[in-house]
Design brief:
- Two copies of one chain form a homodimer.
- Chain A has 149 residues and is mainly alpha-helical.
- Helices cover 74% and strands 8% of the residues of chain A.
- Chain A has one domain: Arc Repressor Mutant, subunit A (Orthogonal Bundle), CATH 1.10.10.
- Chain A contains six helices and three strands, in the order ααβααββαα.
- In chain A, strands 1-3-2 form a three-stranded antiparallel beta sheet.
- In chain A, β2 and β3 form a beta hairpin.
- In chain A, α1 crosses α5.
- The longest helix of chain A has 32 residues.
- At the A-B interface, α1, α5 and α6 of A face α1, α5 and α6 of B.
Chain lengths: 149, 149
C-alpha cells in the first residue's frame, strides 16, 4: 500500500510536470504570434502583479542577471510595452511601469491561452470537466496551505 | 450552459496557472538548497533531454541570448555540472555534456520535488488521489493529441 502510494506520487509529479511543460510550450507558440518573447511575457506578468518595481526587484523575481534584464527592458521600452519612471520621492530610484500596449498584449495572450484550453477541454464531458476542476481546486488549496506553513 | 462552460475554462486555466506557479516557486526553494539557480536547472533538464546539444541549440531551447547562455555554461562548467566537448566529426562545433555531478544534482532535486508533493498529497484520501491522477492523465492525453494535430 505504501508502495502504491509512492507510485501515485511519482505519477502525479510526472503528470503535473508534463502538463505544465505542454502549457508552457503552447504558451510560447501563442507568444510568437504576438511578437513577444517568453522572458518579456514573464517580465510583463511580474510588473503587473507587483506595481512600480525597481530593476533590482525585477532581477530577483526573474532570477536573471542585471545586464540581461537591462537588455530586456531596453527592448520592451522600444516596443512601447513598458517605461522607466523616476521615483517621486527619491529621484535616484528608477521604477518600471507597464504601458497600455503592454497591458493589451498581455490580455490578448491570456485570451488566446484560454481559447487553447477551451479546445482541449471541449473533448471532455461536463462531469469530467467538473472532476478536473474539483481535483485542481483541491490540490491548489492544499498547496496554498502548505506554503503558509 | 455555454456561459457555464466558459466559466469552467477560465477557472481551470487559472487553477492550472496557479498550481504551476506554486510548483515553480517551491521548486526554486528546493533548488536554493542544492546551490543551483533556476536557469541552471532548466539548462540541466534540457541537456539531459537532448544529448550533445550545441550552444546555439541551448540558446533556442531556453529563449536566452547567446551571451547569457555563455555566462551560464561558464558557471556550470566551473561547478563541475557540465563540460564543453569538441565534436568528433567537426572540430569547430562545441557540444555540451552533463557531468556525473550534474546528473546527481538533478536526481536529488527531483527526489526533493517528489517528497514535497508527497507531503501535499498526504492530506488526500486514496479515492481523491486516484481522481486527481485520472483527471491529470486525461488532460495530459488530450493535450498530447492536440499537439500532434
Amino acid at each position: 500500500m505504501a508502495e502504491e502510494g509512492e507510485r501515485s506520487v511519482e505519477e502525479i509529479e510526472r503528470l503535473l510536470r508534463h502538463v505544465a511543460n505542454i502549457v508552457r510550450q503552447r504558451g510560447r507558440e501563442i507568444l510568437s504570434q504576438f511578437d513577444i518573447t517568453p522572458p518579456q511575457f514573464n517580465a510583463l506578468q511580474a510588473l503587473i502583479r507587483n506595481q512600480a518595481m525597481t530593476m533590482g526587484e525585477l532581477c530577483q523575481e526573474l532570477f536573471l542577471a542585471s545586464s540581461t534584464v537591462t537588455d530586456l527592458i531596453d527592448r520592451m521600452e522600444k516596443n512601447d510595452l513598458v517605461q522607466r519612471v523616476r521615483d517621486e520621492d527619491d529621484r535616484r530610484v528608477v521604477r518600471l511601469q507597464v504601458k497600455d500596449k503592454g497591458r493589451k498584449v498581455l490580455e490578448e495572450v491570456m485570451r488566446a491561452r484560454r481559447a487553447y484550453l477551451a479546445t482541449v477541454l471541449s473533448a471532455l464531458s461536463v462531469p469530467e470537466c467538473i472532476r478536473l476542476r474539483d481535483s485542481l481546486k483541491q490540490i491548489h488549496e492544499l498547496m496554498v496551505v502548505e506554503v503558509g506553513r
